[in-house]
Amino acid sequence: MMKTQLPGIANDPRWAAIVARDKNADGTFWYSVATTGIYCRPSCPSRQANPRNVRLHDSIGAAEAAGFRACRRCNPAGISTAAANAAIVTKACRLIDAAAEPLSLAQLAESVELSPHYFHRLFKQATGLTPKAYAAAGRANRLRTGLATSATVTQAFHDAGFGSNGRFYEASSGVLGMRPTHYRSGGAHEVLRFAVGECSLGAILVASSAKGVAAILLGDDPAALLRDLEDRFPNARLVGGDAAYERLVAQVVGLVEAPGRGLALPLDVRGTAFQQRVWLALREIPAGATATYSSIADKIGSPRSVRAVAGACAANALAVAIPCHRVVRHDGGLSGYRWGVERKRELLAREATERGLHDQEHAA
Fold first, then answer.
1. Does the global pTM surpass 0.85?
2. Residue whose C-alpha is closest to residue 122's, from 97, 98, 96, 87
3. Is 40 one of the catalytic residues?
4. Which one of the listed residues 40, 44, 71, 313 is annotated catalytic?
5. Fewest beta carbons within 10 Å, which of 126, 205, 237, 247?
6. Contact 56, 9 (CB under 8 A)
7. CA distances to 45, 141, 285, 330 from 325, in Å
8. Rounded to whole angstroms, how far apart are CA atoms 256 and 321?
9. Is 324 a catalytic residue?
10. Strand locations in the chain, DSSP E?
11. Active-site residue among 74, 93, 313, 324?
12. Residues 274 and 340 sit within 8 Å (Cβ to Cβ)
């Protein structure tokens, strides 16, 4: 039923959706503009109309019965731009998942009738990954499953979409964090060096593989940190670090004392494709700044995955190096932190101080 024009329409919550061009409101109502004679969906990108000229409609039929014609920009009578884009990305994902060999960007773009540049931007905006990274994540997941179920390692990597032995072994360390035969046996032959030390935030445990630092754990009880490490890497052989390893630990302690400086050491980051996307977004938050869980979810192209983002932060094994301490609640409050809220508060305070000093130096 058509809504009558009211001077107070600006106070209607649906007007706020129009002003915000809220895509979530599309399909729940439509609006028309008396001065143009057209009707639109709430997310229409056209210039904002005067609320005194706007009428609200519960259906397309009501808007057309009142004599209004459909806007050509937002196509309110057809599929929305957001839905059309989602369908394009879904089609591309299915093509990538079904392909026996990796598809090029040009091939994917041609299959959905878009230019490579526009398709690449659209895909990354929707998924948080480039098409190439999405394909790599899919191969990695198939590989992990295949190594657990296939008769041989060779069969597993061919089934996962790696076209040659050389190409597979070149990528396997980054995909699995260890040699494929070690992964197949549950990481039983992997060696992790570790050492426990002290820093201003309490006890700290640092562990690393041949690839890089694999864990930075903070706490009050060194024994509890060691148990945590054993739980995270149940099949690895843990070896205490020597004097040379203590130098690496000292570098990590330096990161805790001055978290804004970053860590100039290679990391062995292990997690699911989703966790990796979250952790990459965390590393892009500048020192001294914060982000909300919802903003991280938006950044990786998964706005409804706020809880999953929080779960990825909690699963982070590299304290400070992957700065999950920079993520706060929507109201700016400090939510839970795996290594204690007080440590989170202290890290943020140190970064704010470092940033303030840096700004002063540049202003001088």
1. no
2. 87
3. yes
4. 40
5. 247
6. yes
7. 37, 28, 10, 14
8. 9
9. yes
10. 30-33, 38-40, 54-57, 69-70, 191-199, 202-208, 213-219, 237-240, 291-292, 327-328
11. 324
12. no
